[in-house]
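Checklist before submission:
- one chain only
- standard amino acids only
- sequence pasted in full

Submission:
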Amino acid sequence: MKENRSASLFPKELVIKSLKQSFVKLDPRTMFRNPIMFIVEVVTFVLLVVTVWAAAGGDTAQGSFGYNMLVFAVLFLTLLFANFAEAIAEARGKAQADSLRKTRKETPAKRVDAGGTVTTVSSSQLRKGDVFICEAGDTIPSDGEIIEGLASIDESAITGESAPVIREAGGDKSSVTGGTKVLSDQIRVMVTTQPGESFLDKMIALVEGASRKKTPNEIALTILLAGFTLVFVVVCGTLKPLADYAGAQITIAAFISLFVCLIPTTIGGLLSAIGIAGMDRALRANVITKSGKAVETAGDIDTLLLDKTGTITIGNRKATEFYPVAGVDEYSFVRACLMASLSDETPEGKSIVELGRERGVRIRDLSTSGSRMIKFTAGTKCSGVDLKDGTRIRKGAFDAIRRMCEEAGNKYP
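Returned file contents:
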């Protein structure tokens, strides 16, 4: 259990990439944005010069080569640790964008050419004006307009709406969004966006473009830490004349070690990583924060009101109970529900079949031989079966069933 947790926290690819970035971030132009760690880098470089100079016989009073190299190694590892903490936090945020980008690229699309030939290509190969076909169970590969057909589409992943919506050619409900899923029927869609301009691309751009701007509290803390650093510069600077007056010999390595231990090195090293880690944690909860200030504000939220249930649910309607009317046997009612749902490929229809199995009714026990199955479509909004003895069983939306009953009443008064 511990190994799996460690693997999830520190993936090998992220660790290797972050280690490389730890050395790249040693660039003084990058380190200058963090004053405390920049000062640590400066004194580390000074110690390196002193170590080489002392080893070359420049000044034997500056301590042994082994001692100076040990202090230098500790300071250098401190710099790498601070850079690694920031790099791995940044890498996690970029991994979220890479995951979205991978999903977009690996979505298959059934593209239709001018001659009517259907070819399966990657969604990244679709261009504005291309036409593709989507059937029940397919994920729509790109934003577009339906030019033929109608379908029931699950848009909960994009809009948060839990109930499927009907999209059809013509009118103001013909647009579809890449990343949504077709639940029934078949549609022909024309791509309306160029690569890189789809809704999913805009989400990726938001994730990648989230800049870690310092919050007011972080700015105030940085100023305070900088003040402490100046104070300790003065403290360490006064030790040299006092040591000379007392006749004591203090090496430069000792001065640098004392200075780095006194200043808030750890806080300065982890300050930027904390902000990036906060943005990454919000991103894992599907909340895109574009600055550290937004993360800080989110920390003060106690209650979150959502306008759509699909935002906090899986987005699929699910059957949980059978309610037969008075005088109807429950077992017979469940059998009828299952037979009417066998051709319903939507999550709602599948959940009815699954609930019937839990109640002890198996598909193999249903007498459907010689029957005509009625598939669920977005146009009829119902599914069912016509048994060989003439019995018609239907399940669907209230308005569809009522219309069917009215037509049957007019036909058979």
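Reviewer check: The longest strand covers residues 186-191.
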